[in-house]
Design brief:
Layout lengths: L7 E3 H8 L5 H8 L2 E3 L14 E6 L4 E8 L10 E3 L3 H6 L7 E5 L5 E11 L1 H11 L1 H13 L4 E4 L2 E4 L11 H4 L5
Parallel strand pairs: 1-2, 4-5
Antiparallel strand pairs: 3-4, 3-7, 6-7, 8-9
Helix pairs in contact: 4-5
Length: about 180
């Protein structure tokens, strides 16, 4: 990893992530992470179960995924495991941060966080502050904005943006199950 600062991980997430430390890249990230209380994480930081739009900087391709624990991963829904290279790379970064990350194909890819479109910690504080009406509006927004993933001629497209062959590599997102 090439980054200017340690990643930010919530105290709630770090306890569950430590159980996955068999993954060397994740273990190294957690060893250098800044641990913050879940209620104190900035709203622009990628946490577990955050929905994030990122860019593969050399190609300019943009994707939106949700970073999840391995048992919740489902490529057809855009839910990428934190153990997948892109999941580990993006966890703990903030909007505007970029990182060079090694992938199983032997190449490093430079990824940049464009936007955190949903972060559960921010949503929780919003719900606590604004009550059930805010939760209902947020749930409706999430349903409306649900990512559509479609398989086309053996290629995958996210949100209507045609996939670039480099982004269909299972080493980036994990195994794609049509």
């Amino acid at each position: 990893m090439i980054s200017n600062r340690p990643i930010i991980v919530t105290d709630t997430d770090v306890s569950r992530l430590r159980a996955l430390r068999a993954n060397g890249a994740l273990a190294a990230e957690l060893d250098n992470a800044e641990i913050v209380p879940a209620g104190g994480v900035p709203p622009n930081v990628v946490t577990m179960n955050s929905r994030v739009r990122f860019e593969d900087m050399p190609t300019g391709a943009s994707r939106e995924i949700t970073i999840v624990f391995p048992q919740d991963a489902d490529a057809s829904l855009g839910r990428v495991s934190v153990l997948a290279p892109v999941g580990t790379a993006l966890l703990g970064l903030a909007e505007g941060d970029s990182i060079s990350w090694p992938f199983p194909d032997g190449q490093s890819r430079r990824l940049r966080v464009v936007e955190v479109t949903f972060q559960p910690e921010s949503h929780a504080s919003s719900t606590a502050t604004h009550g059930d009406d805010a939760a209902m509006r947020a749930a409706g927004t999430l349903r409306r904005d649900a990512m559509s993933v479609r398989a086309t001629a053996g290629r995958c497209a996210y949100d209507g943006v045609p996939a670039v062959p480099e982004h269909n590599d299972p080493s980036l997102f994990g195994t794609f199950r049509p």
